[in-house]
Every structure is written in structure tokens, then in C-alpha cells.
Write a structure and sequence with these properties.
Helices cover 25% and strands 23% of the residues. It is of the alpha/beta class. It is globular, with a radius of gyration of 22 Å.
Length: 317
């Protein structure tokens, strides 16, 4: 059973700039940010997707390079973050390439809480590398703050159903870590189908309001040579209002979450007004709408089409 929610809690999105392939360096930077967060009385710091491995895109990595990045949930990097969480008393969410017990790789996100608890979400829609598998379940958990937390990574947030399912499982605070992706193997269009600008400016506030929950989003980038370009962060309340945004490299984009806004939000009222008996089609349709009446198709595979042109100057007889 979840505890009563505290009246407010301060959280931060941290647009960390990571060093590619240098997990010890990136973990040290995470610890520095947690020390700063403790000084500002922040209880939860949300770091970007794959911030421990540090690559902006893993698409172009060879097998050996990807294997070198992968660690289990109880591996040295996440364990070092957990140690820093205990030291500073600030919970942290961090992204990493996870090696499961069966050898499969996942784009995962671990939340380490003071007291030793760890919760891990595996990205549901992993497209960034052919060797990275997609997760098969939602991740929602209770906290000592009385707030139920859900996690969706990067493109997970682009599908309306994912956010709605997370809300229906009781999440009132969604962590939405992100990382800008590079180009595909042919050097063409970006592998990330939706830009971070679209997600942060348009979709995340709308979906926070739809579902009556707080959303904390952090985007990270990698160090490119000697140039460092920061990511971005955004914190949205259950009414869709942006409480804090942007920031510079490794800066804390923080806001105080007033938990009393959750139950009074329109999104929570809409959830109560749902009629699940009407939504069966959501589970029947796949990528193709196969439940409609089939179209008339000729023997050569063409679709039969008929049309008529009607003059506006003469009456139809």
C-alpha cells in the first residue's frame, strides 16, 4: 500500500553531457550533480537515457563496442550511482545498456532510491541497434514520498497508449529520460523519428494534462571532440503547465511538485470517466487495420476504384 503523499517535493532534470564510452567519468559527474542536488534539497534527480555509456547514438557501434558498454543492473556503474545516492540522500534515475542474465541487451533506466531499492525499466520500443531487445512490461513503483513513479524511455513516450497505461497503473510522476540520436547506418535521416523539440514543446505537456501526472524529462548529449553542447530538461505539472525548462550542460532544472494538484487535475477526472467496454478495438488492431471489410481487388492485384465528376453549373439528374 502506498504512503500518503507529501505536500510537495523538489525534483530535478539533469541534462548531463556524457563522455562516450567512459562510464567511470560519467558516474563521477552524476555523483557531483547529486551533491549539488542535496544542497538544493532536491529528493530526486532525473538523468538522461544511456547517460552512463555516454554515446549520443549506439547505432553505429560494432558488436564488441556495444558489449563493452553493457553491464548488469548490479554492475559497477549502477552500484556506484547507488552508493552516491546513499551518500547524499538524493534518489537518482540513470540510463545504461543492460546485459540481462540470459545475455540479451536492453536500453534500460535504473532508479536508485535511498535505502538500497532499485527499479529498472527496459525501453519498450528499442530501435537504436539491432542487438538491443525491446522490453515487454511497464514499470511503476511506490516511493516513500507517497508518489507512485512510472518510467518511459525516449520513444516510449511517443505512443499515447504507453503514457495512458502508466497512468492507469497509478503513476502520478512520470520519468521521461531522452537522448538525441544520430544518423542511421546509411548516413541518412535521424534514427529518432520524433525530435526532442516536438516532444518537449508539444507532446509532453499535453500528455501530462491528459493523464493528470507530473512529467520530468531530461535530454543528454555526448561530448563531441573539444566541444560540449548541453541537452535540455523540462518539468510539467498535471495541468500541462511547464514548471521549469532548458538549462545548460549538467545544470539542474528543478521545480517543486505540489502533489495536491494531482487529484484535482482534469486528467484525473477524465481517467475516472473512461468507459473501458468501448475500447476493445485498441487490442484488436495491429499495424494494419485488418478488421475492416476487404476492398475489391482485381485478379492482377489492383484495387477497383470508381468516381464521378459533377458539374456545379448544372443540376444533377
Amino acid at each position: 500500500m502506498s504512503l500518503p503523499a507529501v505536500p510537495s517535493l523538489r525534483v530535478a532534470a539533469v541534462p548531463l553531457v556524457s563522455r562516450p564510452g567512459d562510464a567511470p567519468h560519467n558516474v563521477a559527474r552524476i555523483a557531483d550533480c547529486l551533491a549539488l542536488a542535496a544542497q538544493e534539497e532536491i529528493v530526486l534527480a532525473v538523468f538522461p537515457e544511456t547517460c552512463i555509456g555516454g554515446y549520443e547514438s549506439v547505432t553505429k557501434l560494432h558488436r564488441a563496442e556495444l558489449d563493452a558498454l553493457a553491464e548488469p543492473l548490479d554492475g559497477p556503474s549502477v552500484s556506484a550511482v547507488a552508493d552516491a545516492v546513499e551518500r547524499f540522500g538524493v534518489a537518482a534515475g540513470v540510463g545504461f545498456i543492460e546485459r540481462a542474465a540470459d545475455g540479451r541487451l536492453f536500453n534500460s533506466y535504473a532508479v536508485c532510491l535511498p535505502g538500497g531499492a532499485r527499479h529498472c525499466h527496459r525501453k519498450l520500443h528499442a530501435f537504436e541497434h539491432r542487438r538491443i531487445s525491446s522490453g515487454d512490461r511497464f514499470t511503476v513503483f511506490d516511493t516513500a514520498w507517497g508518489v507512485r513513479v512510472g518510467i518511459l524511455i525516449g520513444g516510449d513516450n511517443c505512443l499515447v497508449e504507453n503514457m495512458r497505461m502508466t497512468a492507469l497503473m497509478g503513476a502520478t510522476l512520470l520519468l521521461a529520460p531522452h537522448r538525441s540520436d544520430g544518423v542511421d547506418r546509411t548516413g541518412g535521416r535521424p534514427t529518432q523519428p520524433v525530435s526532442m523539440e516536438q516532444s518537449m514543446r508539444c507532446w509532453l505537456p499535453a500528455r501530462a494534462a491528459d493523464n493528470g501526472m507530473f512529467v520530468v524529462c531530461s535530454e543528454g548529449l555526448e561530448v563531441a571532440g573539444l566541444e560540449r553542447s548541453g541537452g535540455a530538461g523540462m518539468i510539467v505539472d498535471p495541468c500541462g503547465r511547464v514548471l521549469a525548462e532548458r538549462g545548460t550542460q549538467d545544470a539542474l532544472v528543478s521545480a517543486c511538485l505540489e502533489t495536491g494538484l494531482i487529484d484535482g487535475s482534469a486528467g484525473r477526472q477524465w481517467l475516472l470517466a473512461r468507459r473501458p467496454e468501448l475500447y476493445g478495438l485498441l487490442t484488436r488492431f495491429g499495424h494494419r487495420a485488418t478488421d475492416f471489410e476487404p476492398r475489391s481487388v482485381s485478379s492482377r492485384g489492383g484495387i477497383a476504384i470508381s468516381f464521378a465528376q459533377v458539374s456545379r453549373d448544372r443540376p444533377i439528374r
